[in-house]
Amino acid sequence: MTHSPLIEKYLAQLQCLAANKQASVLDLSCGGGRNGLYLVNNNISVTFADVNTEVLEQVQQSLSCANFEKKSLAQYWHVDFEQAGATPLQGKYFAGVMVFRYLHRPLFEQIKAAIKPGGLIIYETFTEQQAQFGRPKNPDFLLKTNELLERFSGWQILHSFEGAVNNSVGGETKQAIAQIVAIKPSSLDE
Fold first, then answer.
1. Strand partners of residue 26
2. Strand 156-166's sheet: what is its strand order?
3. Highest mean pLDDT: which range of 16-20, 45-49, 84-88
4. What is the dihedral of CA 61, 83, 107, 124, to 10 degrees?
5. HSE of 86, CA atoms in CB hemisphere, 13 A
6. Could you report the per-residue pLDDT of 89-139, keeping only the tens digit for each?
7. What angle do CA 79, 27, 138 make, to 5 degrees?
8. Which residue has the higher pLDDT, 67 or 88?
């Protein structure tokens, strides 16, 4: 599976942010790490975070095999973002956070706080309309209409999309998704 076109579109900005903020980009709930690996291969420091140790090991193995000299750009964080009462992002700061195909609403405020002022959020996941096309169907994992825009109101929106697209894997089936790319305000009030 290839990386998201959103990552490619904002690559130069991510490179600049990571260098200027002297911080990594968080690949939250990274799964196979396709997006974070693309960033590492483009000289951006990435923190791969996931609850599944096996996928983190696979990401590490992919990087070891493919690009030995860039291994130092990757950090691995085994973390359960959904543990009741936990605040795993508290006290952590990133130049940017990217989230793909994952939704756990209690994390939104933590994600916003973990991005350094002037940093970037890149978020893409399924909307409620996805239920008509297939899985996931559970509303807990599906964004409501304009939810990403509302969650990041007050941020500088660089890109926003909500609608049905062809599945990037098969191409014939549709997926209902929402995307946002936004810059955190430099001021303290969001």
1. 47, 97
2. 74-78, 46-50, 25-28, 94-100, 115-126, 174-183, 156-166
3. 45-49
4. 40
5. 9
6. 999 999 999 999 999 999 999 999 999 999 999 999 998 889 888 888 888
7. 75
8. 88
Q: Which residue has the higher pLDDT, 17 or 1?
A: 17
pLDDT of residue 111: 97
Minimal CA–CA distance to 46: which of 89, 119, 95, 80? Answer: 95
Tokens of 23: 């911080």
Q: For residues 118 and 122, what is the distance between their CA atoms, to the nearest angstrom?
A: 13
Q: CA-CA distance, 162 to 179, in Å (whole number)?
A: 6
CATH number of the 5-183 domain: 3.40.50.150
Q: What are phi and psi of 164, to 5 degrees?
A: -95, 140
Residue 60 and residue 33 in contact, taking contact as beta carbons nearer than 8 Å:
no
Report in angstroms the alpha-carbon separations of 3 from 18, 22, 137, 155. Answer: 19, 24, 24, 25
Query: The dihedral of CA 65, 55, 85, 107: what is its sign?
Result: positive
Helix and strand numbers, DSSP H then E, in the chain: 6, 7
Question: What are the Cα distances from residue 51, in Å, to 7, 32, 47, 107, 138?
Answer: 23, 12, 13, 14, 20
Angle subtended at Cα 138 by Cα 135 and Cα 143, rounded to the nearest 5 degrees: 90
